[in-house]
Design brief:
- By secondary structure, this protein is mainly beta.
- Helices cover 4% and strands 57% of the residues.
- The chain has one domain: Beta Barrel (Porin), CATH 2.40.160.100.
- The protein has an 18-stranded antiparallel barrel.
- It is globular, with a radius of gyration of 23 Å.
């Protein structure tokens, strides 16, 4: 065994590794009216992500270490004496073994994504992002592919948290044609504090022909929280028309349904939880739906009908406009409608490594609340 390890080490050292650095600086200004439907409470601040890392590669081995500092400007108590960097963290730290082009085993802290980040996402919009302490296996064929993974969400033995939590997933699918995918996905997660064991499974498919493309997906959720059972589900449908024009226009119709708890007296939890999703890209950019109202947060579930328009008037500039109408799937009051939202944002390339983005949102509540507004602008330098 020792001789085998020595031989493998010698072979690895015989190859010259390549190193690819990662550098990112992303400050973002934000203004909002509080996202609470009340007058007053305006917020204005700047946050910043700074990442530094490297990916090292050998023919069959690779490793990545990516550290980050995430902060709000002015959060340190003193410009000279406070140098603790409280939000300094390891975002990624993994090693990968790839014996063939079709097989890759990755172990360590890593991002995990699936199905456009619907249930597993890296939430890159947030400055901190999401990553898992996990081991994942990826199998890739000409048309078939599969992923499986296991993550430790919380471990009481760490001395930092007092509970235990685990997550495992498996995904498999086929790509019958270019741009077409049919996938199945299953996720199981546990939370010892909540006495929760939950399984989420479903199907995802996308494809297109000519100027038309679309996506459909559906997931069910079962399990238990203490003595209560979980029985929930969701569906999502998207259709896009992309006419052939120099400014690359796209028109998308979009509908999502997240089930809710219509009967508080029964023994089931019927509100669908989107798990580890990047919800910011699905349910309005102002992040009121599912974060503050609707979805599993308050048990009302969600109907989300949207019209999405996008264009690239010039190669380096993209313009997007989304309009959402939100309603409760299982309303807590007699008023089913929750509100309407409009999102407008632009993204432009200054150079290959530098881009500027900015936009704004307006949310109109159906209930007797004041409208909420949000505006943002950011610079992203990524090498």
């Amino acid at each position: 065994m020792l001789l085998t390890l020595v031989a493998l080490s010698t072979l690895a050292l015989a190859d010259e590794p390549t190193f690819n650095p990662v550098v990112q600086v992303r400050p973002r200004f934000e203004y909002s009216t509080g996202k609470d439907g009340a007058s007053g409470g305006e917020l204005m601040f700047v946050t910043q992500r700074a990442r530094l890392g490297v990916t090292a590669k050998l023919p069959k081995l690779s490793a990545r270490v990516l550290v980050q500092d995430v902060r709000m400007w002015g959060s340190e108590g003193h410009t000279l004496l406070d140098f603790t960097a409280d939000a300094f963290d390891l975002h990624e730290g993994w090693a990968q073994y790839k014996p063939t082009d079709a097989v890759a085993l990755r172990v360590g802290r890593q991002e995990i994504t699936a199905h456009e980040h619907r249930l597993l996402g890296n939430v890159d919009w947030t400055q901190q992002g999401r990553s898992f302490d996990a081991a994942t296996l990826k199998l890739t064929g000409e048309k078939l592919s599969a992923d499986a993974g296991f993550a430790v969400l919380a471990d009481a033995n760490s001395g930092v948290v007092t509970t235990n939590g685990l997550m495992g997933f498996v995904r498999g699918g086929i790509a019958p044609a270019k741009g077409a995918v049919v996938d199945v996905l299953a996720i199981v997660d546990t939370d010892e504090t909540l006495d929760r064991t939950r399984a989420t499974a479903g199907v995802y498919a996308k494809g297109g022909s000519g100027i038309l493309s679309g996506r459909v997906e559906a997931y069910g959720q079962v399990g238990s929280v203490g003595d209560l059972s979980i029985q929930a589900g969701m569906v999502g449908v998207q259709g896009t028309l992309a006419p052939e024009a120099s400014f690359k226009p796209e028109i998308t119709l979009w509908y999502d349904l997240l089930s809710g708890d219509g009967d508080a007296a029964d023994d089931a939890l019927n509100a669908f939880d989107t798990l580890y999703a990047t919800n910011h890209k699905f349910y309005g950019q102002i992040d009121i739906m599912t974060f503050l109202v609707g979805g599993a947060l308050d048990g009302q579930g969600l109907h989300d009908a949207a019209l999405k328009l996008s264009a690239k008037p010039v190669e380096a500039l993209a313009v997007n406009l989304d309009a959402h109408v939100f309603a409760a799937a299982a309303p807590a009051t007699d008023d089913t409608m929750l509100g309407q939202e409009a999102d407008l944002w632009l993204s432009g390339k200054v150079s290959g490594a530098l881009s500027l983005q900015g936009g704004g949102s307006m949310f109109l509540y159906t209930a007797d609340k004041d409208p909420d507004a949000w505006a943002w602008a950011q610079m992203n330098l990524e090498i």
